[in-house]
Design a protein that fits this description.
Helix content of chain B: 25-40%
Radius of gyration of chain A: 21 Å
Number of helices of chain B: 6
CATH class of the largest domain in chain A: Alpha Beta
CATH topology of the largest domain in chain A: Alpha-Beta Plaits
Distance between the termini of chain B: 33 Å
CATH architecture of the largest domain in chain A: 2-Layer Sandwich
Number of domains of chain A: 2
Helix content of chain A: 25-40%
Number of helices of chain A: 5
Order of helices and strands of chain B: EHHEEHEEHEEEEHEH
Order of helices and strands of chain A: EHEEHEEHEEHEH
Shape of chain A: elongated
Number of strands of chain A: 8
CATH architecture of chain B: 2-Layer Sandwich
Structural class of chain B: alpha+beta
Shape of chain B: globular
Structural class of chain A: alpha+beta
Strand order of the largest sheet of chain A: 1-8
Strand content of chain B: 15-25%
Number of domains of chain B: 1
Oligomer: heterodimer
CATH topology of chain B: Alpha-Beta Plaits
Distance between the termini of chain A: 45 Å
Radius of gyration of chain B: 19 Å
Number of strands of chain B: 10
Largest interface: A-B, 33 and 37 residues
Strand content of chain A: 15-25%
Chain lengths: 182, 186
């Protein structure tokens, strides 16, 4: 099973440090040095705030990604077990956005690029688990309240096994209690 | 109370010996048509993917399978609507629709769901990018298979049974009523 980053709405305070950490990891420290109004801030996860909840949402790195299947130019690939968009070949058709049931893909205008009409290229953007950086997901590292965790295959398997053992234990207790009655 | 509650298979840890006959039979029964799996080892060319999972502790073991919850957390968690309730109230995964997002796995409190690879015609089913298609795998009570749940049929120790809570509850409540009646003068 592919790993993914999961937010905990009970711990998240909505500070958006994860979004900044994401941008710094992918674009460098440039963000701290330039005019905020002249900068395109394009994190690969985004904060959702409702009246009751604040939590960042990001890609689940599905086993059979709907985005990957929907992409007509095959620019979504699995790299190191992460589902990654190749923004160089993306044509911005929004098919992946439409296919994704989680709303975790954005369209962003890319700094320093231009199309035939002179306007900037607009491409799909989503969590890539910071693949290739060697540091693991930046959002997880920078979150001050530890509201984000990287759910690895081992963590998932262990969690499933724990639940199975608990289920077996409960069944055993009931079976023993019923046997004692007879 | 619900009109009719869904059924489920339950194992008795005091009878189970952990032989995994249930897991194998489950896999074989579900892959007969799709992967030509027969009754001998030689017919198995794909990964064995059961829909119930033998679980061992230090002192006992039993297979864990879906409870077909009435307000199913997996069904409620699935954003692709790939988990549905069929006409009998059973909770079923539509493997065609499943994108393997793992939300159902995380939602199930029993650990009854695993994400496992799919195979067709004796070979792994591949996606557009040649990766293997995986889907949530959980008990479907042998939907569409004659004779009902295979695991129940094959268990050599009769450790598995199909629970129909509608009937069990009725029988229990009748017994309770009977004992109230029997003890009313004493």
């Amino acid at each position: 099973m592919r790993q993914f980053v999961k937010g905990n709405p009970d711990l998240c305070i909505g500070c958006r440090t994860c979004m900044i950490g994401c941008v710094v990891e992918h674009e460098g420290r440039r963000i701290f040095e330039i005019d905020p109004d002249g900068y395109d801030f394009n994190p690969k996860l985004h904060m959702v705030k409702t009246a009751k909840i604040s939590v960042p949402v990001q890609c689940k790195h599905c086993e059979n990604p709907a985005c990957l299947a929907a992409c007509p130019v095959k620019c979504i690939k699995v790299i190191n077990d992460a589902v990654v968009i190749d923004q160089k070949t993306c044509i911005g058709c929004k098919s992946c956005m439409q296919a994704c049931p989680f709303g975790v893909i954005d369209m962003i205008s890319q700094v320093g690029t231009s199309q035939a009409d002179g306007s900037r290229r607009v491409v799909a953007n989503k969590c890539d688990l910071c693949v290739g950086t060697g540091n693991g997901p930046a959002c997880v590292r920078v979150c001050p309240t530890e509201a984000l965790t990287l759910v690895s295959e081992d963590v998932m398997k262990e969690s499933i096994q724990r639940r199975r053992t608990e289920t077996a234990k409960a069944a055993k207790d009931i079976a023993d209690a019923l046997a004692a009655e007879v | 109370m619900a009109d009719k509650m869904s059924c489920y298979v339950l194992a008795d840890p005091n009878k189970c010996t952990g032989c995994k006959a249930c897991e194998l039979a489950c896999f074989a029964e579900h892959n007969k048509k799709t992967n030509d799996v027969g009754y001998t080892v030689g017919t198995v060319t794909v990964q064995v993917t059961p829909k119930l999972y033998l679980t061992r502790t230090e002192t006992y073991c039993m297979p864990i399978q879906c409870k077909h919850c009435e307000d199913a957390p997996c069904l409620n968690a699935c954003k692709k609507h790939a988990i549905y309730r069929d006409e009998n109230g059973q909770v079923i995964v539509d493997e065609e629709k499943c994108i393997g997002c793992k939300d159902c796995v995380m939602a199930c409190p029993f650990g009854a769901i695993s994400i496992l690879p799919l195979s067709r015609k004796g070979a792994p089913l591949l996606q557009k990018d040649r990766e293997v298609v995986k889907a949530a795998s959980k008990c479907d009570l042998c939907k569409g298979i004659e004779g009902g749940p295979t695991c129940v049929r094959v268990c050599p120790n009769e450790a598995l049974r199909l629970v129909d809570m509608n009937e069990e509850q009725l029988n229990k409540s009748i017994k309770t009523a009977q004992s109230l009646y029997d003890s009313r003068l004493s």
